[in-house]
UniProtKB/TrEMBL annotation:
It comes from the Bacteria. Residues 217-231 have a biased composition (Low complexity). Keywords: Activator, DNA-binding, Transcription, Transcription regulation. This is LysR family transcriptional regulator. Residues 21-193 form the LysR substrate-binding domain. The lineage of its organism: Bacteria, Bacillati, Actinomycetota, Actinomycetes, Mycobacteriales. It comes from Mycolicibacterium obuense. GO terms for cellular component: protein-DNA complex. PANTHER family: HCA OPERON TRANSCRIPTIONAL ACTIVATOR HCAR, TRANSCRIPTIONAL DUAL REGULATOR HCAR-RELATED. CDD domains: PBP2_LTTR_substrate.
Length: 243
C-alpha cells in the first residue's frame, strides 16, 4: 500500500497525450516515488503547471506558455476524420485540396493551428472533439484533428486519413521556469532518455584521444610490460619469461 507520506510527482497530459512509456520507466527507476497521471483539457494544461495543480504537463502548442519552460517532444500528423463510406476513405492519404468545399466541423476545444484550413467551417461548433466525431459519423461534415485524438475517439463508423501537406501538431513538456525540484528534473531526464546514472550536472566525458596519443600510450604500456618481464623471479624460482 502506498503511504500518504511517500514522495510523489504529478504529470498532467492533454487528451491523446502518451505519457505511459515515461511512467513505466519512472516506476522502474524510482519505485519509491509515486507518479500520478492526470488528464487535463488542452486549454487548461499550461495554467495547471503555473498554479502547481500538476508538476509537469504534456501539452500541445501553440498555447500561452508564459512563466513556463517548454521542452519540445514530437510533432503529430494532422488527419481528416471522415465517415467510413466517404469518398476520401478510399485513399491512403489526402491533400488539403481534397477537402475543398467539404463542411468542416471546428470544435470549441480545437487544437490544430491551421488558420487557413481547407473546407467550409460549419456554423455550429460542437463543444469537444468527441462530440465533433459523433457529428462526423452522422454525416454532418469532416473534422481536422491530431492523429492521436482521432485514435482516442475511434468509432467503427468513422475513419481518418493523413493530410500530407497540413501543418503538424507540436507536443511539448512544460514545467515552471527556473531551477527545478529534484523529482521534476529526474522526470525530465526520463523523458530525454538520460540513463539512470547520468545527471545534468555530471562531468562531461573525457575527450577522445588522438591517434598519436593512442600510439604513445600503447608504446608506454609495452615498455612497462617489458620491464616487468625482465625482473628476476623470487628466490628459488626462475624468472618468468614474457610471451
Amino acid at each position: 500500500m502506498v503511504s500518504p507520506s511517500q514522495p510523489s510527482i504529478t504529470v498532467g497530459y492533454v487528451p491523446g497525450g502518451t505519457p505511459a512509456k515515461w511512467a513505466r520507466r519512472w516506476t522502474q527507476r524510482h519505485p519509491q516515488v509515486r507518479l500520478e497521471l492526470a488528464t487535463i483539457p488542452a486549454a487548461d494544461a499550461a495554467e495547471a503547471v503555473r498554479t502547481g495543480t500538476v508538476d509537469v504537463a504534456v501539452l500541445r502548442l501553440p498555447t500561452d506558455t508564459s512563466g513556463l519552460a517548454v521542452i519540445p517532444l514530437y510533432a503529430e500528423t494532422t488527419v481528416a476524420v471522415v465517415p467510413t463510406d466517404h469518398l476520401l476513405s478510399a485513399a491512403d492519404e489526402i491533400t488539403a485540396a481534397d477537402l475543398t468545399g467539404e463542411p468542416r466541423l471546428v470544435p470549441l476545444d480545437d487544437v490544430v493551428d491551421w488558420p487557413d484550413a481547407p473546407g467550409v467551417p460549419a456554423e455550429y461548433r460542437p463543444e469537444t472533439v468527441s462530440a465533433a466525431i459523433e457529428l462526423v459519423a452522422a454525416g454532418a461534415g469532416v473534422l481536422v484533428a491530431p492523429q492521436s485524438l482521432a485514435r482516442l475517439h475511434h468509432r467503427k463508423d468513422v475513419t481518418y486519413r493523413p493530410i500530407v501537406d497540413a501543418p503538424t501538431c507540436a507536443v511539448a513538456l512544460a514545467v515552471p521556469e527556473g531551477p527545478q525540484p529534484a523529482l521534476v528534473d529526474d522526470f525530465i531526464g526520463v523523458v530525454r532518455g538520460r540513463t539512470p546514472g547520468s545527471s545534468r550536472g555530471q562531468t562531461e566525458p573525457a575527450p577522445k584521444r588522438t591517434a598519436r596519443e593512442k600510439t604513445m600510450a600503447k608504446q608506454a604500456a609495452r615498455a612497462a610490460a617489458g620491464k616487468v618481464a625482465r625482473q628476476p623471479g623470487k628466490p628459488g624460482k626462475p624468472g618468468k619469461r614474457s610471451r
